[in-house]
Amino acid sequence: MKKLRSQGWFGGQDKDGFTHRSWMKNQGYPHDLFDGRPVIGICNTWSEFTPCNGHFRDLAEWVKRGIWESGGFPLEFPVMSLGETLLRPTAMLFRNLASMDVEESIRGNPMDGVVLLMGCDKTTPSLLMGAASCNLPTIGLSGGPMLTGRFRGHELGSGTGVWQMSEQVRSGEITNDEFMEAESCMNRSKGHCMTMGTASTMANMVEALGMSLPGNAAIPAVDARRYTLAQLTGRRIVEMVREELVMSKILTRAAFENAIRANAAIGGSTNAVIHLIALAGRIGVSLGLDDFGKLGAKLPCLVDLQPSGKYLMEDYFYAGGLPAVLRELGEAGELNREALTANGKSMWENVLDAPCWNRDVIHKYGEPFKPDAGITVLRGNLAPNGAVIKLSAASPHLFQHTGRVVAFENIEDFHARINDENLDIDENCVMVLKNCGPRGYPGMAEVGNMPLPPKVLRKGITDMIRISDARMSGTAYGTVVLHTSPEAAAGGPLALVESGDTITLDVANQRVQLNVEDATLAARRAKWQAPELPKRGWERLYVEHVLQAHQGADLDFLVGASGAEVKRESH
Ligand code: FES
């Protein structure tokens, strides 16, 4: 093993070595810890404002046990934590900012390897992206999902249950008091959302990419085995440093292809598309929207979990979790079997014997939960650079549909008009929401699954076509076209849509078409005015540099990697 980078701080017998060791000793560390053993950073997104990651200080202690056992020296450090439910205006606005924090914290400090503690939606991609730009030996550990929510004898999924019950309140099916009662019953244990929302999806992506030990995605946060996994993860990262198993050896094109296929098979979130493209950009793997279309769109959904189905992450864990899904993909020839994983074994070695204990939850490849259900990429004059739709969570009767447009200029306009009984709208219309993309919101909020108008809900209708440049929560569902690129605020065709136009959604031909003459669109474009930019601060920097959704919405100057070398020393 070559000399460890941490020895560049701790190994000197001079003034600098004195300084680097002496101040660390104020925490009680004995001198022999600086003798050249691997220093492992534990990158912690713990925050009481991020409830899904609220148990991460405990989890870090188990990681430390494993690191000590393997002869490493663990040092925990905090990074910006993005809590999906509280952070305004939207956590996604800060994904790239948090990734910068992670990247500079790793590069600037004396560590030889990193354990990433990830849970709530954006904490996973921000840590992976930041670490990828440094490319040290790195392993992921997810915090695990919450236990199943239960309300009045029924199972209740985090996020998905909120969408369902808020619609029931608006249609008069349940009272507001009943709705309020459910809030204590839904999120009843430590952990992240236990539906197949973005957090669970990204935990699955970490495992499918090979960036964690097998089994990482599904073990509930409060199950003792989550803590066992934390300890084993700590043991393993020390070995990874000794093996010089850096992140780029795992995050190959083959790994991303496995992740795309796994996302289709689990009925994963559309947010994974943006995060995987951004991560690939950091590590130098060429990945685009069309890869999702080619590799994932025609795959069956094997996992019956909310929001596409009915079960929850606890059921998924008991049924076998992601290893059981990957085994199905591998036996069907839909897995890059040789892809290297964090435990040093190939993906196939890890999953070839994986058992499945419940075929109602994890279906066989040949008897899927839903056929052809991956994320589909749409193009057409409305989305020249693409848009996406999650078919497993959509309504097949709307897959071929032409409807009259009801357009909303922005989310405020939507909120102001959607409950108006005089709004000229019915279930055959297509709802269009503009100016909610990366630049427009800014931050690309999860508002694409617009609630339906009450007068439509009262008829018992639960789905309509909705099109926007926004994202949608991984816990949401419906026939929702998202990530339309270029976005309205960047002058994309979405900006030119007007109420009364018609739009055709044609899923079979992967088209989304605005049925308006080119000359009319040109006249509208001549009148279009770009929205004003934020004046200062992070929002200003963000809107000036954010890439479009089909490019992963990273900042243009963050794409790529700089490695772990620091050119100048401070002393
Ligand atoms: Fe944190 Fe859903 S709100 S994972």
CATH superfamily (homologous) name of the largest domain? Response regulator
**What compounds are bound to the protein?**
FE2/S2 (inorganic) cluster
Sequence of strands across the biggest β-sheet: 7-8-12-11-10-9-13-14
- What is the global morphology? globular
Distance between the termini: 27 Å
Number of helices: 21
Domain module tally: 3
Structural class: alpha/beta
- Which percent band covers the strand fraction? 5-15%
Number of strands: 14
Which regions are unreliable across 5 or more consecutive residues at pLDDT < 50? none
For the biggest sheet, the summary is: 8 strands, mixed
Per CATH, which architecture of the largest domain?
A: 3-Layer(aba) Sandwich
Kindly report the average pLDDT value: 96
CATH topology of the largest domain: Rossmann fold
In terms of quaternary structure, the protein is: single chain
Helix content: 25-40%
Task: Output the radius of gyration.
Answer: 24 Å
CATH class of the largest domain: Alpha Beta
